[in-house]
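Hi support team,

I submitted a single chain yesterday and got back a structure, but I'm not sure I'm reading the token output correctly. Could someone confirm the output below corresponds to the sequence I sent? I've pasted both exactly as they appear in my results page.

Thanks,
R.
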Amino acid sequence: MKRNMTFAIFAAGLVAAALLAGCRPVTLPTTPPQITIANEEDTVTVEHSAGVTVIDVFSPRGIGAAQVRLSPAQARGALQVRFHLQGLEQATFHNGVAQLTVSVSSIPPYAASQMLTYDGGTRPLSADDPLWATVMLAANDAVTPTVPLTSGAFVVTLPPAFLAQDASELSLRWIDFYR
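Hi R., thanks for writing in. Yes, this is the structure output for that exact sequence:
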């Protein structure tokens, strides 16, 4: 009887192992982002890698707008917007609750100024504010980027506090100094 019980346990273990061997981790299909652009000559792309979502904006006219609906995976984590423009007079981001406006000076040291607009009004932001976006000039062909950028981008990293509104839709508007 003890032998039959041992055999039954052994057989059940083999069946369980055989069933588990065929199992693979389930990965949910990723939904591609939905992008609507205002000007047909503009190009807006979205890539997500290693927890960072990057939105690239190319705008030959220098003035444009886009609506980007991100998948849940893309809406979590860091979000960078790269404006491939010569200058960034103004970029506006709206998350459905608040609007963040970023401007970069066209003269050195290329200081950024930022404003937040919400139901309670408008207020300027300082660099120590949790809603402050990090702004960098990234040149492809120069060690020290200068404005007007001949190649490269203005990289705006939106702060987690701005993205914490749990909105998967982001409205973008931009104006280039040199349009």
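A quick pointer for reading it: The chain has one domain: 29-175. Let us know if anything else looks off.

Best,
Support desk
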